[in-house]
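Below is a filled-in request sheet from our internal design queue. Each sheet records the structural input a requester submitted and the sequence that came back. We keep these sheets so that new team members can see what a complete request looks like end to end.

REQUESTER: design group, bay 2
PRIORITY: normal
MODE: inverse folding
CHAIN LENGTH: 396
BACKBONE (tokenized):
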């Protein structure tokens, strides 16, 4: 018995220590911070939790599900409030919201509630909180139609998604367990960082993309009132597709500190949820006295979780183009990296104190790096560097 209590005390102490370290409800989990890097700390948001306040009404008391199907929200039992009649109109025989097996229960809490049996509509006002299918809705006033499963919320609306995204609005209309709906004056803060603003937003299928009109996106959190982000994208239409981890724009303008600098009729880029994805990388741009203007387009191929390939070209105005490639492969206890380039160009040799251009020929380089963790004590590695001539790397 003593060992059991000691074990429980150790668990409680660890939990308390994590809470003190995180401060704002965040714990840290080990996760690879990048390919070839050491393991690093990456924040992982805790699941949302709440304490049921006095006067809370469960879905069972509202007749939204059959008794015994749902135990209410996690937390302490609500304190009794006999002086406030919650819903005197509720019939003694509660009716289920749906007969399907996947019917999601609903928990509703508010300062005051009214129930219209004729329209099967519940109207809540004052610090309203509604929970259904992992989504949490807060507003000044909420009307919930039991027949159509439609929620209309007005005033300081906040909707927490299971994904961690948080939506702010003045008015929303939600259906299908709050998975679809229409929003006015939308602001969305993504779980991975970043922010949307839009005149309107709409989701037409459960967990589908959100289509926003007259919208903008920025990776800046911009906590201060009226703060201008370092950069943002504004567009006539913005589509946030979480299933594909993609953000798409129509008629987009790129702004730096509020000043438009670039326009494009269409643009798409990954959101911050994924760390790697096949596609074109941002091209490099450089100016060199010998090579001229240099542009380096590259394409990244995510072959597998432990393998990738990057191919590209170095395009210079004064020299022949150079093909580029980099391959990386990680095994259970080893990794290799191959980096190479190739071109067909001339070099300059010094003959009798004079620089003499030579005929064009194949030139290039190959670097090979490998590492093998034999055990916790021993490690073996290799580092091979080959070039066609001693001028190649200095030139390119």
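RETURNED SEQUENCE:
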């Amino acid at each position: 018995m003593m060992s059991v209590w000691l074990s429980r005390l150790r668990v409680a102490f660890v939990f308390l220590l994590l809470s003190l370290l995180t401060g704002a409800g965040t714990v840290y989990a080990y996760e690879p911070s990048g390919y070839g890097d050491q393991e690093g700390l990456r924040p992982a948001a805790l699941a949302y939790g709440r304490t049921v306040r006095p006067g809370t009404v469960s879905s069972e008391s509202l007749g939204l599900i059959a008794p015994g199907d749902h135990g209410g929200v996690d937390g302490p039992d609500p304190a009794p409030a006999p002086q406030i009649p919650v819903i005197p109109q509720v019939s003694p025989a509660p009716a289920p919201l749906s007969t399907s097996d996947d019917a999601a229960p609903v928990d509703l809490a508010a300062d005051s509630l009214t129930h219209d049996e004729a329209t099967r509509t519940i109207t809540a006002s004052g610090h309203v909180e509604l929970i259904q299918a992992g989504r949490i809705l807060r507003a000044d006033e909420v009307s919930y139609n039991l027949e159509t499963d439609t929620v209309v919320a007005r005033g300081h609306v906040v909707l927490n998604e299971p994904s961690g995204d948080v939506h702010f609005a003045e008015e929303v209309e939600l259906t299908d367990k709050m998975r679809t709906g229409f929003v006015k004056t939308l602001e969305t803060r993504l779980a991975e960082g970043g922010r949307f603003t839009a005149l309107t937003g709409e989701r037409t299928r459960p967990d589908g993309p959100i289509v926003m009109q007259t919208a903008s996106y920025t990776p800046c959190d911009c906590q201060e009132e009226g703060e201008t982000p370092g950069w943002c994208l504004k567009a006539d239409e913005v589509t946030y597709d979480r299933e594909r981890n993609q953000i798409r724009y129509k008629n987009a303008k790129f702004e730096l500190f509020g000043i438009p600098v670039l326009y494009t009729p269409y643009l798409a880029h990954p959101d911050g949820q994924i760390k790697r994805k096949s596609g074109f990388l941002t091209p490099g741009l450089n100016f060199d006295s010998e090579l001229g203007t240099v542009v380096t387009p590259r394409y990244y191929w995510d072959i597998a979780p432990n393998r990738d390939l990057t191919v590209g070209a170095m395009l210079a105005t004064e020299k022949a183009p150079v093909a580029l490639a980099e391959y990386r492969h990680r095994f259970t206890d080893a990794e290799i990296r191959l980096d190479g380039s190739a071109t067909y160009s001339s070099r300059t040799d010094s003959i009798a104190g004079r620089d003499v251009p030579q005929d064009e020929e194949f030139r290039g380089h190959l670097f090979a790096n490998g590492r093998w963790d034999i055990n916790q004590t021993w490690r073996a590695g290799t580092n091979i560097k080959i070039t066609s001539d001693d001028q190649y790397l200095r030139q390119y």
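SHEET NOTES:
- Residues 289 and 389 are 21 Å apart (CA to CA).
- The radius of gyration is 30 Å.
FILED BY: M.R.
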